[in-house]
Amino acid sequence: MMIEKQRRRTIRCEEWEPIQVGVPGAPLSFAELGQIFKQWKARTGTDPASYFDLRGNSLVPKNWTGVAPGDDVQLEVAPIGSSSLDKPERIALDRNISLMLQASLTGGSMELAEGDVAQSGERMHVLLMAFCRLLAKARRRQIIRKYVPARMATRCTRGRTVFPAQVFESIRRPGYFISEWVALDEDTPENRYIKAVLARFRPRVSGSLRCKLDELLCEFDDVSLVSSPESEWRRIRFDRLPREYSVLLKLGKSLLDGETPGLFSGLANAATEIVFTARVYETFVASKIALIAEARGYRAERQPRGRYFGKWKDGTHIGRSAFELIPDMQLYRDGESPVSCVIDTKWKRLVPTSPQYGISLDDVYQVVTYAARFGHSHAILAYPWIGTGNPLGGTAHYISLPMASAAGKVQVTIIFVPMLEDRFASWQTRVGSLLDSFGSE
To answer: What is the pLDDT of residue 113?
Structure first.
């Protein structure tokens, strides 16, 4: 595998950076691009058209980072804005993207310890560490067992004595009793599936992570190792499981199936990793803002469905709904001064030196349309900031754009998510202060 990987020619670029294709001197031919698209579809199960813009002789990778291999060439895409970063800054960016990926997989935020993310961005290592931590946390709260009947010959009675088996046993071996009792057994579908995950990935890792997997496997000595985890998955009753185990098992399934959001691995390229950055960023930011908002009395709704821009009045679709509106999140706070807000996340590069910071007018139109259609007085657009310092300069950390619409006044706020900040600590504080200010104008 490693020999194959070394033979490939590598083309490096950033997200949204155009690459010339099929012209003299271009780094990529259309035949090689076809190889990349073919393997992309096979490995990720997604349409390449959603992640590549191909116009004429220009190819633009969008909303993903990592390595996409073909037969003879591989495309290595770095996050937007990362080429201008120094080594410590790239490590900080990689750590935060991994934290976002981990949060999107586990359904919540988890803190990364120092050194969790290697400089090369070994995200499989991070995901397995997340699995190990979730497992340890779940077992501290509850060890899943089932009640099973046990029967054996004992030197003293245990539970109840079984007749007529006891009569024959007393003749065959005087002084022994056939006892039967109810025991707790860890050999359940949930535990068998967890053990299958640990056993599957143990040979693929080394060092401290392998030691951790070995330590956890020892706790499952009394659990059967199955060859078909899929059959165990079908036996699991999620409606009876604590949330910690539900999250743990879903992450384990994603790892076993190779379908983790934003990650795939293949035989043709050892350590191939793709992170669907836009999706991971959207999930992470929405989950963080929801936690911050709920702590302040807001009610959060994630990607509500069923609301449309309008209905057709002409043509063959008369009366049918047209253009569904699906904002990333809506916030509601009841009380004497009720407040509502719509939030949309955008994984796009900001340009602090441009007149409008690189913010698209279409993005503003979209969020104002959401606010007008859903009746919100506040709207937030959240962009990543991959750089040092403050993109606005000074001490301001967001932009307010009050404007009027047909439905009334809408306060649009542009916030920046600092992708190099350690665990987004001060950003979370700023978001909380912003939400507190709504309704106090």
So the answer is: 35
